[in-house]
Amino acid sequence: MKFKTRVPCRKPSVSDNDDKNFTATKITPTPSSPSPPHESSLLQTHSSLQTLPSVPSLQSLLLDDVDDLTLTRTLSSSFSLSSSITSLSISPSTSSSTSSSLLYASAGHQINVYDCATLTLVDTFNGDSPSSGAVKSIAFCNGKVLTAHQDGKIRVWKLTEKLLETKTSEQKHKQVATLPTLSDRLMHYPIPKNHVQVRRHKTRLWLHHNDAVSSLAVTPTAIYSASWDKTLKIWGPLDLKCKSSVTASQDAVNAVTVSADGVVYTASAEGLINVWNNINNHNDIKKMSGGLSLIATLEKHKSAVNALALNKDETVLFSGACDRSILVWERVDGGKYMSVSGALRGHGGAILSLVNIGDFLVSGSADRTVRIWRRGGGKFKCLAVLTGHKKAVKCLAGKMVEGGNGIVLFSGGLDGEIRVWNVVRLIDVSGD
Predict the structure, then answer these.
(1) d(C-alpha 270, C-alpha 267), whole Å
(2) Are strands 4-5 and 337-344 parallel, antiparallel or unpaired?
(3) Which backbone phi and psi does 52 adopt, to 5 degrees?
(4) What span, in angstroms and rounded, lies between the C-alpha atoms of 151 and 131?
(5) What is the pLDDT of residue 376?
(6) Which helix (H) or strand (E) holds 165?
(7) What separation in angstroms does the CA of 314 have from each of 262, 270, 292, 317?
């Protein structure tokens, strides 16, 4: 698949006059000046920027476009952990029962697991490994849990069937691998060309991430990891070997997401979104060698891009950045082009997290609020603003409720609080 972009190039810039600061993604230090070890677990702050005047706003949806939709939202629960919530993720259901889903929440290096239905704590793991640093992302692959860490490693955990059935804390997650695996390292180590320079007087195997792993994305044929070391790596989901590594940006890569047809999107601290395609057969897990080709660069944000999300049919890409805007990118002309169709505005701080749940886009911001958006009549409208967090909303997770008439939404903040929202869609028939 080939993409062309119809947006003009714009070099990212940072305003020094804006007095609103937020906790944002790290700008990778240059090789000649590595960050001290004690700074590696800190999130760097930058000034958030004004929204983009050159991009038309999309949330001017006429009321008659959504006169059949009303949302009621209630805060059903909230609980606090010992440190900032850095990642939330819901495991795939293993049965038709909604209680089979598990919520994974990371606070620092520790990961807590809750039953989504009862919010009962069923497990805590990685609590005795503070050297791994904060957990940046959590994903699921072939019945295993993948966690991305500040120390540049990806850890693989096995979830036993007994835990899934009993939801008790007696059975713990068991670590079964660390990426890159020992066998993978030993296989590549003897070959000189597999060693790359990472600092002035230091080399390392190209298999390793050399800074925090910021984001994970999983497909049936590949595991993608994005890092503050500016690279994107591809891992085999079965053998867990590193298949490929590309320099995905001139600055830290903050997010990665993948569509079902194998198109990969990466967002970076330099304000760019790169679009990649597997040059191999991404539908055949045995033939997939992990080669990537850059097919487009989307240049419209004025500052670091922190979050990406695809709509449910994967024809629309949403990107959230430090410029306080969510840009909407659409495939046009039969998928040959990516075109920015507008911006969603309203947040007063940097966009730090995005998640698409059914027909709804949910955004979390440094302004401490969560917004719920929905498309109708070709435009978007903000249907709800959820408040209550005392600090920036760093991560989101959610799922449709049974029957499809609402969502359960989890929001995690740098205040250490997880808030649980029930958002119900009501059909208004008063006008009939």
Answers:
(1) 8
(2) parallel
(3) -85, 110
(4) 8
(5) 77
(6) helix 161-166
(7) 11, 24, 20, 7
In this predicted structure, what is the pLDDT of residue 328? Answer: 96
- pLDDT of amino acid 372: 95
Degrees (nearest 5) of the Cα angle 387, 67, 399?
Answer: 50
Output the CA–CA distances (angstroms, integers) from residue 246 to 114, 206, 231, in the order listed: 36, 10, 6
Beta carbons of 227 and 235 less than 8 angstroms apart: no
Indicate the average pLDDT of the chain: 80
- Identify the CA nearest to 49 among candidates 303, 335, 315: 303
Per-residue pLDDT tens over the stretch 22-44: 333 443 333 333 333 332 222 22
DSSP string, 2-26: --EE-S--------SS---EEE-PP
Q: Which secondary structure element, helix H or strand E, spans residue 163, and what is its range?
A: helix 161-166
CB of 276 closer than 8 Å to CB of 263 = yes
Amino acid at 54: S
Q: How far is residue 269 from each of residues 28, 102, 171, 319, 320, measured CA to CA in Å?
A: 9, 31, 40, 12, 12
| Residue the block writes with tokens 């062309």 | 4
Burial of 311 (0-12, 13-18, 19+ CB in 10 A): middle
Q: Which residues contact 125 (CB under 8 A, 6 or more apart)?
A: 110, 111, 113, 157, 172, 173
Query: 200, 210 in Cβ contact below 8 A?
Result: no
The helix/strand/coil state of 354 is strand
Burial state string for 93-110 with b = 16 or more CB within 10 A and e = fewer than 16: eeeeeeebbbbbbbbbbb
pLDDT in tens, 107-129: 999 999 999 988 999 999 987 78
Of the candidates 361, 355, 349, 356, which has an alpha carbon nearest to the alpha carbon of residue 321?
349
User: What is the Cα–Cα distance from 300 to 328, expressed in whole angstroms?
Assistant: 11
Give ∠ CA 214-211-286 in degrees, rounded to 5. 65
Give the Cβ contact number of residue 138 at 10 Å: 23
What HEC string does 103-148 produce? EEEEECCEEEEEECCCCCEEEEECCCCHHHCCEEEEEEECCEEEEE
| Residue 31 preceded by cis peptide, ω within 30 | no
Question: The whole model's pTM is what?
Answer: 0.82
Considering only 50-64, 95-109, 140-154, 167-181, which range has the smallest mean pLDDT?
A: 50-64
> What are the respective helix, strand and coil percentages of the chain, to the nearest 5?
5, 50, 45
59 — pLDDT class (breaks 50, 70, 90)? low
Q: What confidence score (pLDDT) does residue 58 get?
A: 67
